[in-house]
Amino acid sequence: MDETTKRLRVPPQMGYYADKHNIFHLLQNMVSSLVIDQPEDPISYMINLLQRDSVDIPKIIVLGPPAVGKHTVAKKLSTELGAIHVSIESLLKDPSALSAQAHQYTLKEQELSAELVVKLIQQRLDTVDCFNKGWVLEGIPQTRLQALSLQQIGILPEHVVMLEAPDDVLLERSQGKLVDPISGDVYHRTYILPAEDNVTQRLEKGQSRSEKQQSAELHHYRCEVTGLSSAYEHVLKIINSDQPHTDVYQQVLAFVRTRHRPRTPRVLLLGPPGSGKSHQARLLSETYKMVDVCCGHLLRSVAAEGSPLSEKIKPYLDHETPVPDSLVLQVLEERLSQLDCSCRGWILHGFPSDLQQAKSLRESQHQPNRVFLLELTDDVCLERLTLRATDPVSGERFHALTRPAPTAEVQDRLKTRKEDSTNTVTHKRRQYKRNIADIQTIFPGAVCIDANQDPHSVFEALESRLMTD
Fold this sequence. Notes:
Blueprint: H1 12-20, H2 23-37, H3 42-50, E1 59-63, H4 70-81, E2 84-87, H5 88-92, H6 97-107, H7 114-125, H8 128-133, E3 135-138, H9 144-152, E4 159-164, H10 167-175, E5 177-179, E6 186-188, H11 197-202, E7 204-205, H12 211-231, E8 236-240, H13 245-256, E9 266-270, H14 277-288, E10 291-294, H15 295-303, H16 308-318, H17 325-336, H18 339-344, E11 346-349, H19 355-363, E12 370-375, H20 378-386, E13 388-390, E14 397-399, H21 408-413, H22 422-442, E15 447-450, H23 455-464
Parallel strand pairs: 1-3, 1-4, 2-3, 4-8, 9-11, 9-12, 10-11, 12-15
Antiparallel strand pairs: 5-6, 5-7, 13-14
C-alpha cells in the first residue's frame, strides 16, 4: 500500500476537541434537521440553525393521567426555559382552518382523530416562535399511534416526563381543583396553593368531571401508557407525583436540563480498594464495547513484551516498587492512542493515585470526559478484602460471606494474598484517603457513586450517568 492509498487515521485530539465543544451534537442536530425538513436552500437553512441563540432548544413532552399536575409542571417549565407551552386547548384556540375543523369535533363531543391531532401539533411547532424558542407539549401525544406519527414527521422530543400517582390520589385531586380566572393557572385546595394572598382570594372552583368520567379517562390513559412509554423509552423519565409539588418540579427540571450527547466515552474510575472498580470496568466494557484499561494489568502486559520499554519497567515490577510516573504515562499514552481506544472509547482505573498523576493525566491529550468516584465505607472495605481468598489449584477467588468455597477440601487449601491482610488493606485505605481529596480538585466534576450497594445497583447508577451532561 503506497502513501496515497493509506487509510487516514484521525488523531485522538480531534475527538477530544469535538467533545469539548459539542461538535458531534451540533452535527447530529443539523443533519437530522436537514433530513427531516429538506429545505430548498440548505445552506441558508443551516446558517439560520447556527444563528439561533442556543443549540439546545427545549423539546419536551409532559405526560400523565388526569389530575396528576401536567398543566402546572408544563407551564412552569415553559416559563423557566423560555419555551412555548402547547396543549390541546391552546391548539384549538389557534386562528387557523385546521383548528376550526378540530373545534367542531369538540363541540360534538367527538374524539379527535390521530391524524388531525398530529397535523395540529405539526402546524404549531413549525411556527417561528417554536422553532427559535423550543416547546413543551402538555398531555400530547395521548396514544402510541399519535407518538409514532409524530416521530415519522420528525417531531422528536429530547426529554419526555411521565408523571405518575395512585388512582385514589388522582381522584381526590380532581375534586379539589381550583383555577385562577386571570392567569388560568391550576391549583388545589390541599395539594398546591398560590404564594400570593390576592391570587388565593380570586381562585374559583374548577370544572370537575364526575367520578365516572374521571375513572373512564384514567382507564383510557392506563391502556395507552405502556405504548407511550415504549415509544419514548430512550428519553423518558417517570416521576412520582404523589409528593410535594416543589419536589416534583425540581426533579422534572433537573431531568430536562440534562443533555444526551453523542460522544466517545473516556471514563475514569476512582475509588478505594474493594470498591469494585475492576468489576464495574468489566461490566461497562462488555456492555458498551469500551476498552478496559487497568493500569496495573497494562504495566505487567508491557513488561512481558520484551520491548525496550518493557526492559525499563520490568525491574520495578520484579522488586514490587512503584513504576516512575514518566514510564507509566508513556505506557498509557501509547495504549490510549491506539485505534480501538480512539474509536470505541476507554475506561481507565488504577491510575491516577495521587495529585501529580492526576495533573499529568489532565494535561495529557487523553483527558477523561466522565469521572466517577466509587465511595465505600471502612467496614465494607475491610469485609470485602480481608475475607477473600484464592484457590491455588483452580485460580478461582472465593469470599467467606458472599461466595464461600464449595467444599471443605477447597476451603482447606485457600490462600489469602498478602495484599488482602488487614494491616495492608488498612494502610492502602489510609493512603487513598490522603490522596483522593487532592485528586478531586483536579476533577471537580467527578460524580460520586455509593459503592456500598450490590454491584448491579452500582452499575445502574454508572450507566444512568454515562451519556448525560
